[in-house]
Amino acid sequence: MSNLREFLEKKDVTISAHRYVIDAMSAMAQGLFASLLIGTIIETLGSQLNIQFLIDAGTFAKSVAGPAMAVSIGYALHAPQLVLFSLIAVGAAANSLGGAGGPLAVYVIAIIACECGKLVSKETKVDILITPAVTILAGTLLSVLFAPYIGKAASSLGTLIMWATELQPFFMGIIVSALVGIALTLPISSAAICAALGLTGLAGGAAVAGCCAQMVGFAVMSYKENGIGGLVSQGLGTSMLQMSNIIKNPKTWLPPIIASMVTGPLATCVFHMENNGPAVASGMGTCGLVGQIGVCTGWVNDVANGVKSSIGAMDWIGLILICFILPAVISWLVCEAERKAGWIKEGDLKL
Q: Which residues is 201 bridged to in the sheet?
């Protein structure tokens, strides 16, 4: 047993939730951003401006989403070069065979294939043949055997959430908004979760609302401690920066959570805000304004497909209220009430 432990340590194979859930999932989200998400934005821009080069560039970027995710995961797992480059084929296979739930298939299979490749890396004199062969064959075999089922399970769960949101927009608006928002602030990737589940439509809109509530909420309520730098880093960056403060005083998390529970059902029931752009945008909130770009991309797609006649004033009013104004006002009011009650003290939100 000790020999096995030493071998795994030598190969940097660390079986832990932190590495496989936090590190790998966060890296996978970055791979999605650098391929599917930015590709969709560029392609949409090209379509609106009628520039074929932009359309082609966006299409190419979207087509390599699987390999981009797999390589990103391998990078997070400290894969040697031959393993890292071999994951390109693994990502393509898993994403293709996983169908609508491809991102989750890539996530699971790329981790296993990467660790298999790491175990044999530099163990033979023909490493340049053995390492890529083991990585690619292990990943492809797993993709053939399991990717369709993993993808179907993820797609079915996402479809169930979206169906439930359509059926019960008020309660599901609260649940989806609160949970995805919480996931965004936790050290896991809400964007990767939304992408893996293919969360779009009304459920995607609720997810956008929840993420915005966390980012804008923390940015505004902590302005007293962190100033303009904190406002920008949290409002356009990530609310995850507050995680250490939340651990010290969990009550600091209440204002943005309450805000998300208000804006979620408003998004689904009043403004009918949907994200029909890329699912990954549902879990981005105001980070680089990607959530808002996703919603707007969905509008454009819906108009082009005849689902929506035009983009109206209520669309813009709803987007601004749900994503910026209401999260700021509600979080600030709840935070001030907590400060007066002594639940939040000076410095509790200091970054």
A: 275
120 and 249 in one domain? Answer: no
Both 102 and 240 in one domain: the answer is no
List, as one string, the DSSP characters of 177-245: HHHHHHHHHTTS-HHHHHHHHT--HHHHHHHHHHHHHHHHHHHHHTHHHHHHHHHHHHHTT-GGGGHHH
For the whole model, what pTM was predicted?
Answer: 0.79
Distance CA 272, CA 254 (A): 25
Q: Examine the domain organization and report whether 190 and 271 are in the same domain.
A: yes
Within 10 angstroms of residue 157's Cβ, the number of other Cβ atoms is 16
For the record, the structure tokens of 175 come out as 């649940």
Number of domains into which the chain is organized: 2
Non-local (6+) Cβ contacts of 14 within 8 A are 8
Q: Are residues 227 and 288 in the same domain?
A: yes
Q: Token pair of 104, please?
A: 């989750």
Domain boundaries, position 140: 2-156
Spatial CA neighbour of 289 closest among 232, 329, 330, 240: 232
How do residues 190-245 score in pLDDT, each as one tens digit? 888 898 888 999 999 999 999 999 999 999 999 999 999 999 999 988 898 898 89
pLDDT at residue 332 tops 80: yes
- 242 or 288, which is more confident: 242
Q: pLDDT by residue (tens digit) across 99-140?
A: 878 888 999 999 999 999 999 999 999 999 999 999 999 999
pLDDT at 56 > cutoff 70: yes
Could you give the residue ranges of the DSSP H alpha helices within 77-126?
Answer: 81-98, 102-120
Residue 348 falls inside a structural domain:
no
Residues 115 and 246 in one domain: no
CA distances (Å), 60 to each of 55, 65, 322, in order? 9, 9, 33
Single residue among 121, 156, 191 that ends a domain in this structure: 156
Residues 114 and 229 in one domain: no
Is there a single domain that holds both residue 112 and residue 179? no
pLDDT band at 270 (very low <50, low <70, confident <90, very high): very high
Task: Specify whether 198 is located in the same domain as 283.
Answer: yes
Return the residue matching tokens 């079915």. 156
